[in-house]
């Protein structure tokens, strides 16, 4: 563990406001946090750094009372406290602003700010008091133009964030936790956010700030704690004195190394199957070009919000491209998803349950969802053929339990992913698009999924994999594209780039 | 074959419905004796159930597909009016009774397709689109009929649809045929599979390559078509076309479908359940009428049955989820 003394003498004199010591959080089958230490002083911006899956979200949920730690203690002003639920966290003065802003669109600004602790007398809300207080808080936040009576749904993302912040302030928060607050904002709004953070800290509030953008951390932060694989690897580093290189080194490397299948290498002569040229989607991404040959796996690496998933969905026709073309086997694709599927494309979406599966239908019907019409005879279903096709894949993929008649709901994450892959195996895909194929999949099943994807490529499919986990992209793909702010900033064979370089590219990307 | 909880769930639900129906019959026999169990009464009961029944089959599809159609009653009314205007009846006299049938079916189908286009391509919420159709179709029917009742004078039409076949009225046979066809369509065809997929998880269906908009259009078209078939049956039964035909039919139909076990949220539909639901409500009405019980009391009993059935559904759903994890 690296421990660096903070620079300023005045800061040194301060007592820590919040301490977390040896926090452990176990979920069934996984240890999300394995001894995290964090120490935050009043009036500082403390940056929390770590890769996706390192445990940052779990840690702030423990602090917000949403998760109960398995072991470890939280101290506030040196006194141990327990945080049984989110209300208790707010009572202690700990406010959390989540990435997905948790405001109610249908309520007004003032109603949102006082949600759960309405100003009321005898059951009747004191609307004028709430409005007056709200106006004061919004003025303090530099947004006097937002009316307390405005419906929150009509505000842009930045406005919603202000409302979230105002809610934190309305409770006299002493510790404000912000989870990637700048990810949804444009540059002007980021400026305002930074100003607000500085004002908060000037008032003695401690801010725990999660961001992947090093430039922003340098502008705003005082000290940094780095988390990797559920452990604190460095605590209280000084922002000013720690070079980027050291930070990235601390974040990379992994305690659990996954084994990736060997790359057989794609023959130079292999024909391009998927050709994407200058594809764009409004403000989300622009000028994305890529070619995938038969047997090749191309990985897209990038931060959440960089446009990776949208690129995949646009290639698939689930979003209508505003510019550029997609060619499959030399033929230009037009129209929506059904045209892409008919041409031999398949997508395993990021959200398996909400985008991929019919949870209350048996496994075989989920597997044949794209092929039941083809297996049918002039409109009459052939369930025997469906079952047989599904059974074959269930055995080939070692999907457990091996029954095709169970409801999809009863399967584990890894097996649900296998069922989705089986769907496209039955279909016989030439192009397979995989969005976060191992999200929510436990460690054991991961290697199986990796092997499966490689086998699909070996059988001649052109595969694109999107993942938040950089080692996964690097280990699995033949070629890697790095996506930052909606643009492909790098394209090379996976062997020519390492985790360090990818992180450098995605994190040093300009603050939007 | 489908695993323990999945097997016991639907089977148990069907068993419950059959039990409820038998219970009602027993009550009927006990309270009115031979009057209920007579061939004549059962025939009447079935004839009354037939119109609602046919429309309920269509409604089962649209609800399973994640939608709702509030306009079926009005569309049925409009179809009876359009199929019985003087000009339609003249044409029918000249060319044959099928002109009236085709007119009724075409009007129903067209109204359904308008609903479907609004919902699928216009992205109007189904509730609103079909509520608008409910108002508009009733209004158009009044305009065409001039608020008068149009008597059906095409005798071949009446002779055909008021006849008996193998001891059952023709309109009961129509219900049987539509129900059987509906069962096959739902359980044995790609159309049925798409319906379940679109209603169960539209996003997953879309990403699997199913044309969900086109299918939604078809679903409303199908429901409109069953309202047209219902119109033919109503014309035959009442021998008149009127803009008030089918008033509040949508409520009876939706009640029968939901009591039958089709999920109002979509993704699961049962034709057998719908048929049982229709029979339960018709038998209830019949038993009440035979006992000279006030129709207001009858309405209260209906309400109680609907609430009870939905409560049971929730309970089953909760239990299934609990046992499947």
UniProtKB/TrEMBL annotation, chain A:
Lineage: Bacteria, Bacillati, Actinomycetota, Actinomycetes, Micrococcales
Molecular function, one GO term: ATP binding
SUPFAM superfamilies from the UniProt entry: P-loop containing nucleoside triphosphate hydrolases
Keywords noted in UniProt: ATP-binding, Nucleotide-binding, Repeat, Transport
Keyword Nucleotide-binding: yes
InterPro entries to which the protein is assigned, alphabetical: AAA+_ATPase (IPR003593), ABC_carbohydrate_import_ATPase (IPR050107), ABC_transporter-like_ATP-bd (IPR003439), ABC_transporter-like_CS (IPR017871), P-loop_NTPase (IPR027417)
Protein's name according to its UniProt entry: Ribose transport system ATP-binding protein
Residue ranges occupied by any ABC transporter domain in the UniProt entry: 18-254, 268-510
Matching Pfam families: ABC_tran (PF00005)
Keyword hit for Transport: yes
Protein's organism: Promicromonospora iranensis
From TrEMBL, chain B:
Main location group: membrane
The keyword Transmembrane is annotated on this UniProt entry: yes
Keywords of the record: Cell membrane, Membrane, Transmembrane, Transmembrane helix
Membrane topology label: Multi-pass membrane protein
Membrane-spanning intervals of the chain: 42-63, 97-119, 126-145, 165-185, 217-236, 273-293, 299-318
InterPro entries, alphabetized: ABC_transp_permease (IPR001851)
Pfam families: BPD_transp_2
Subcellular location, record wording: Cell membrane
Superkingdom: Bacteria
Keyword Transmembrane: yes
Protein name: Ribose transport system permease protein
């Amino acid at each position: 563990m690296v421990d660096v003394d903070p620079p300023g003498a005045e800061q040194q004199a301060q007592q820590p406001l919040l301490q977390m010591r040896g926090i452990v959080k176990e979920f069934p089958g996984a240890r999300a946090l394995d001894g995290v230490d964090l120490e935050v002083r009043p009036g500082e911006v403390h940056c929390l750094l770590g890769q996706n899956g390192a445990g940052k979200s779990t840690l702030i949920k423990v602090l917000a009372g949403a998760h109960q730690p398995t072991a470890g203690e939280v101290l506030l002003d040196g006194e141990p406290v327990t945080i049984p639920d989110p209300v208790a966290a707010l009572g202690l003065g700990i406010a959390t602003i989540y990435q997905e802003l948790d405001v109610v669109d249908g309520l007004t600004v003032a109603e949102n700010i006082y949600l759960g602790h309405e100003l009321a007398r005898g059951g009747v809300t004191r609307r004028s008091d709430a409005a007056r207080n709200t106006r004061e808080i919004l003025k303090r936040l530099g947004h006097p133009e937002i009316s307390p009576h405005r419906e929150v749904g009509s505000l842009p993302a930045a406005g919603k964030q202000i409302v979230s912040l105002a809610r934190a302030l309305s409770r006299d928060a002493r510790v404000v936790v912000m989870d990637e607050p700048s990810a949804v904002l444009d540059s002007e709004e980021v400026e305002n956010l930074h100003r607000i953070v500085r004002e908060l800290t000037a008032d003695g509030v401690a801010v725990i700030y999660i961001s992947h953008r090093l430039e922003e951390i340098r502008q705003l932060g005082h000290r940094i704690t780095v988390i990797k694989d559920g452990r604190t690897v460095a605590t209280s580093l000084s922002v000013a004195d720690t070079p980027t290189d050291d930070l990235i080194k601390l974040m990379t490397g992994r305690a659990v190394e996954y084994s990736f299948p060997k790359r057989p290498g794609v023959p130079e002569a292999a024909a391009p199957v998927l050709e994407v040229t200058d594809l764009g989607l409004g403000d989300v991404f622009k000028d994305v070009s890529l070619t995938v040959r038969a047997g090749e796996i191309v990985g897209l690496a990038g931060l959440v919000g960089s446009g990776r998933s949208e690129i995949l969905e646009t290639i698939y026709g689930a979003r209508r491209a505003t510019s550029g073309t997609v060619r499959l086997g030399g033929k230009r694709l037009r129209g929506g998803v059904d045209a892409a599927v008919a041409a031999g494309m398949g997508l395993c979406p990021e959200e398996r349950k909400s985008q991929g599966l019919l949870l209350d239908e048996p496994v075989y019907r989920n597997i044949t969802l794209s092929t039941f019409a083809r297996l049918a005879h002039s409109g009459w279903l052939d369930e025997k053929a469906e079952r047989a096709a599904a059974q074959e894949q269930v055995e080939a993929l070692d999907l457990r339990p091996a029954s095709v008649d169970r409801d999809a709901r009863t399967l584990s994450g890894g097996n649900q992913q296998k069922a989705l892959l089986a769907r496209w195996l039955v279909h016989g895909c030439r192009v397979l698009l995989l969005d976060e194929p191992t999200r929510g999949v436990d460690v054991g099943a991961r290697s199986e999924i990796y092997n499966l994807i490689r086998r699909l490529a070996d059988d001649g499919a052109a595969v694109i994999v999107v993942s938040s986990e950089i080692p996964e992209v690097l280990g699995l793909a033949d070629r890697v594209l790095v996506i930052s702010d909606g643009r492909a900033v790098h394209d090379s064979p996976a062997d020519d780039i390492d985790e360090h370089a990818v992180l450098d590219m995605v994190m040093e990307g300009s603050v939007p | 074959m489908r695993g323990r909880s999945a097997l016991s769930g639907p089977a148990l639900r069907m068993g419950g419905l059959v039990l409820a129906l038998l219970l009602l019959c027993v009550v009927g026999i006990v309270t009115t004796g031979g009057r209920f169990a007579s061939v004549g009464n059962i025939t009447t009961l079935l004839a009354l159930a037939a119109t609602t029944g046919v429309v309920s089959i269509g409604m089962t599809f649209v609800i399973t597909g994640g939608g709702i159609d509030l306009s079926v009653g009005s569309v049925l009314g409009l179809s009876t009016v359009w199929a019985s205007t003087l000009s339609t009846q003249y044409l029918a006299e000249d060319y044959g009774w099928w002109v009236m049938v085709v007119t009724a079916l075409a009007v129903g189908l067209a109204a359904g397709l308008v609903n479907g286009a609004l919902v699928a391509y216009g992205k109007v919420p189904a509730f609103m689109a079909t509520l608008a159709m409910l108002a508009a179709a009733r209004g158009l029917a009044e305009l065409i009929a001039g608020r008068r009742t149009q008597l059906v004078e095409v005798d071949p039409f009446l002779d055909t649809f008021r006849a008996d076949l193998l001891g059952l009225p023709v309109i009961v046979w129509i219900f049987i045929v539509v129900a059987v066809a509906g069962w096959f369509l739902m359980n044995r065809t790609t159309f049925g599979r798409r319906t379940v997929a679109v209603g169960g998880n539209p996003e997953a269906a879309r990403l699997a390559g199913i044309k969900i908009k086109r299918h939604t259009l078809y679903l409303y078209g199908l429901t409109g078509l069953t309202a047209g078939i219902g119109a033919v049956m109503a014309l035959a039964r009442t021998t008149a076309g009127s803009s008030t035909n089918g008033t509040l039919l949508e409520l009876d139909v939706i009640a029968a479908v939901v009591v039958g076990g089709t999920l109002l949220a979509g993704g699961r539909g049962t034709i057998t359940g719908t048929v049982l639901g229709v029979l339960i409500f018709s038998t209830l009405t019949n038993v009440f009428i035979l006992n000279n019980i006030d129709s207001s009391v009858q309405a209260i009993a209906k309400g109680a049955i609907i609430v009870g059935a939905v409560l049971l559904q929730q309970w089953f759903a909760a239990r299934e989820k609990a046992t499947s994890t």
